[in-house]
Amino acid sequence: MAPIEIPRGRASFKKREGIITLSEDKTALIWSPLPGTGPPVISLSVSNIINLQQTPKTNPKVVLRVVEKPKAPGADPAAYPFQFTHGTEARNEADAIKDILSQIIAELRGDDPSLPKPAKAGPNGAGASAAMAMASAVNSKHLPFRWFEDDMLKADVELQQSLMKKDKALAQIYNDAKSSKPDSLSDTSFNNQFWATRITLLRAYAIELNQKKGSYNVLSTIKPRTENGELKLNINHEQVQLIFQQHPLVKRIYNENVPKLTESEFWSRFFLSRLSKKLRGERITDNDNTDPLFDKYLEADNTMAVPAKITATSVPPIINIEANEENQGGFRSGNLKDVEMRPRANIPIIRTLNSLSEKIMANVAPSDVDPSAPSYSKNGIADALSQQLALQDLRGDAEAQLIRLSVKDTSTFFTGNQPSLTDQEAADARLYAAQVPSDVLFEVQADMDTLHSDGRGGIDLHRSIGVDPDSEDESTSLDSKNPKPQHVGSRASLRFAQTQILDGMKSARSHLTSHGSHTTNASEERPMSLPTDIAHRATLTCATTAEFLKQFWTVFNSTSTTLDPEKAQELAYLADSLTRSKQRIEALAEEAEKRRQEIMEKRKREIREYYQKTGRKARWVPVGGGRDAVWAVFEGMVKGLERAVGVWEMVSSGRL
User: Fold this and answer.
1) 90 and 27, same structural domain?
2) Looking at the DSSP assignment, which residues form a beta bridge with residue 81?
3) How many domains is the chain partitioned into structurally?
4) Global pTM exceeds 0.85
């Protein structure tokens, strides 16, 4: 095969005309000023080139931008824009040089031993060795144990500052040492030397910060009490979510009986029922209260729950305790056979506690293990064990694990308060949507690189965006009959943005505090001036509704194109739960409105009594809360419910 001819081209670099080509051995890209016979001014090793960019064919300027990897750690990559100036042949010359560079770079990267390669099958059909399998498993994902790396600990300034805020003595030592350091020692060198001897402190503190609180037996922590003949019960939305997670039976009872029963009545009756004692693992006696609502569920199954993360993975038979229990009897009879076969009173309690403990521990899976990944390699070695056995100094560069965000159409997300687009605006929007951001950015960079060599003398940024700093009537452009177009950075657009931000802050503040109430206890949370008990119920209702929405979309997104009957039945049950959730919000809104009317009648009566006593009219203070306040608080949640129910109706009818 005949050797490939090395292309040449006429290109300018920093206003100087020259010749760009490759060296004879094709290992370097060189550029020499005209006439091109002297030594090269620029010589870039092809192996150091990390990116090549070229202007599209629609752009009259032909620019080839070569990016070289940084020469020092922490430095920025160097960019070399070459503008081809050989008239009609400029595009062909740039394409020829780019093509041969791309071919050489691809060959070099194909021979790079640091890049992962697919394992070649051996003579017996087996894959690579166990050591290579472990190394590839390690290289395939980013290590979560960032506190094991000394260099990362010494470079983590936020972690160091957080540790010094916690340990005042260490902060005092740091400040004293920094104030007495010599001037010749830079701050970076001082920090490296200071923390190099305290790596163990940083690692221990990082581990402490990354520890997560696990699940617990929530029913045993909730103790209802009686004060002055009235039942007092303190429960928050986090505890409600844990109860639903650990006891699916309670979640089913709640979904079937609320809003027929109020939130407070449901939980009060539940914690006084025999079912609550059974789920706690306590012995039920004849003196316990009977409740027809909950007693009929005493024999119901409480094991229908989401599969645990840890049980979804395969377990080696050598440590599979559950398999041993199936063969030997396990907790039912230990290692001995049950020869008496008599019912024991403690067996139901033991089974309840063991079942609850199993649920809690089964969901405490390591946060660094991916549940969707295969747990074991073909050779039978656990991936998690492989990561622990792999040597850190033999690891290559971990490949970045990027999450692809797919957004089909964002134009309908925030159209509630926006006017409809005109035909011209719609045409402009379609034109902008057809642009490729990387190409547009590259064209702008090419124009900026050749800004001083095109003879135009630069650009006026103020003029390009339509801002006139000397204009005095710009601020009134929004109030005129024929308003000017709003430009980014103008006074009118800044004032409009400021007004919009302040309105949003006022709206958010009204959701968290009562309107104009300065006498309310600061510890009470009264969004939209709702009474304290109504606000507490709204918080619980919001938490339960969010949980149902989360479960619905989780099941919906996990289905494939064809909906199997089991998934359809589960989605139908969840859609019915969402409908009941909206009914609970409606019931809460009606009760809030009833409470508001009672407060208004009470205030009117007080004003009349005050007028009869003093003859003066008292000032009427508007009463907040009510139905509108509840709907304002749940506005986003209701839209989410309607959206989910609408999607399910389309799926069930075959329109989606």
Assistant:
1) yes
2) 65
3) 4
4) no
